[in-house]
Amino acid sequence: MRLCEILDVESDIEITGLAFDSSRVKDGDLFFCLVGRENDGHTFAADAISRGAAAIVVERRLALDCIQIEVADSRHALALAASAFYGNPSKRLKLIGITGTNGKTTTTYIVKSIIEEAGHVCGIIGTNAIEYCGNKLDARLTTPDPIELHATLKDMADAGVEYVVMEVSAHAIKLNKVDGITYEVGAFTNFSRDHLDFFGDMKSYAQTKKSFFSAEHCRSAVINVDDELGKEIAHDSALPAVTYGVDNPSDVFGIDLSMSAYGLSYVINMADAVGHVKFSLTGRFNMYNTLCAAAVAMSLGFPLSAVTAGIRNVKKIDGRFNIINTAKCSVIIDFAHTDDGIANILRAIREFAPARIITVFGCGGNRDSSKRSVMGKIVSQMSDYCFVTSDNPRFEDPQAIIDQIISGISEIGGTNYTAVVDRKQAIRCAMEMAEKQDIVLIAGKGAERYNDVMGRRTPYNDEQYVMEIAGEFGL
């Protein structure tokens, strides 16, 4: 493809690929010098040229003898170039973008099920995987970088996918990953503390979420008006919107919630169309996830019958409230990794727990450290006992992370914990402690299939390990 077909420049040189990592540059690639907090891609431009880059995209001119395209924002340019390079595939699809602190993954799978119940082919892009037409690919990021994202969208469109439901992270919005894509619907789940290592404060984090709900990104909005930031978005956004909630007036709402270990049920009202929702995952927060999906479906014009059937068809979502019943105890595995998320899951378990809740949890390294002590307090208060352990320490000392969590437990005088650095050993200890009616919650990693330690990802999965222990115990 000619350079002038990728970017708005007068150049007919042939471009055979796109790259922003100089170590992956091949002959004929267009290299983008991305500017980040820790790395400046301009310092790798010479390496990219030596590896065969045909031209480079820069935010400032460099003393290099090569074709340079100067732009105001190289990340924005990359997003538009990736779309053009792959034939603008988003224009061949109807995209739904789900953003919010918690609930994105669960909501995307519910929306996908509703769309498929209505008779359409739907793909999904998110934390757990990229899935479409029988294909399931590992997801490295919640929202892929633009080159991978548009390559994936092209493959989906070529395969006959009509709709794509994808998680849109705050990082993706801030880093311009989804620039140039117009979503049929942008949906907001909720807002709570997370990612302050990146955004610095809650105000900046909130503003990034709000910025997604503009004509630049979405044609319409679906908004949780029981959430304070959701109320702001509904008030400030000029987009046509469908609101949902339980406590405040909304277009889509639910009443008469009933929950058990086997799921939840409630009566849903979609703009005066009334039906009965049954969902296999429990918890009030999952009521909100199903309401969000229903509001998305309403915005897209799907009937109530498709909504209730689609929700009912979702039997399991990997890493989200996965229950494993053994002869010794019950184990629940969940991705909850924020203070709000883990409070929600513990609150839901307490609704039906016949005896003790024993929680195994940790906090990720090189991420928002401000939530660690807060999560310690919450888990200590809401669990009968807890094992504080490692969870993707990355380049931090696992013990130092655990100490920060324990500082929160100590603030409230909590003594109901044991620190065990090795996650496997912590899970084993929790299951050995548990008695017949107890529930062991293993939180933080969900469906992840790796441990991230010092830049290396080694294979590991909580559910697989629980099943291994269950086998050893003869359960």
Tags for this entry?
alpha/beta; 16 helices; globular; 475 residues
Structure description:
- By secondary structure, the chain is an alpha/beta fold.
- 35% of the residues lie in helices and 23% in strands.
- The protein has 16 helices and 23 strands.
- The protein has an eleven-stranded mixed sheet, sandwiched between helices. Strands 16-17-21-18-19-20 form a six-stranded mixed sheet, with helices on both faces. It has a four-stranded parallel sheet with strand order 1-2-3-4.
- The longest helix is centred in the middle third of the chain and has 17 residues, at 284-300.
- It is globular, with a radius of gyration of 23 Å.
- The model has no long low-confidence stretch (mean pLDDT 96).
Nutshell version of this structure?
With 475 residues, this protein is α/β, with parallel strands linked by helices. It has helices spanning 3-6, 45-50, 74-85, 104-117, 146-158, 170-174, 196-199, 202-211, 228-236, 284-300, 304-313, 339-352, 371-382, 398-411, 423-433, 462-472; strands at residues 17-19, 29-32, 55-58, 68-70, 94-99, 122-125, 129-132, 135-138, 163-167, 185-188, 221-224, 241-245, 252-260, 263-270, 273-279, 322-325, 330-334, 357-361, 385-388, 417-419, 439-443, 450-453, 456-459.
SSE layout:
Elements: H1 3-6, E1 17-19, E2 29-32, H2 45-50, E3 55-58, E4 68-70, H3 74-85, E5 94-99, H4 104-117, E6 122-125, E7 129-132, E8 135-138, H5 146-158, E9 163-167, H6 170-174, E10 185-188, H7 196-199, H8 202-211, E11 221-224, H9 228-236, E12 241-245, E13 252-260, E14 263-270, E15 273-279, H10 284-300, H11 304-313, E16 322-325, E17 330-334, H12 339-352, E18 357-361, H13 371-382, E19 385-388, H14 398-411, E20 417-419, H15 423-433, E21 439-443, E22 450-453, E23 456-459, H16 462-472
Parallel strand pairs: 1-2, 2-3, 3-4, 5-9, 5-10, 6-9, 10-11, 11-12, 12-13, 17-21, 18-19, 18-21, 19-20
Antiparallel strand pairs: 6-7, 7-8, 13-14, 14-15, 16-17, 22-23
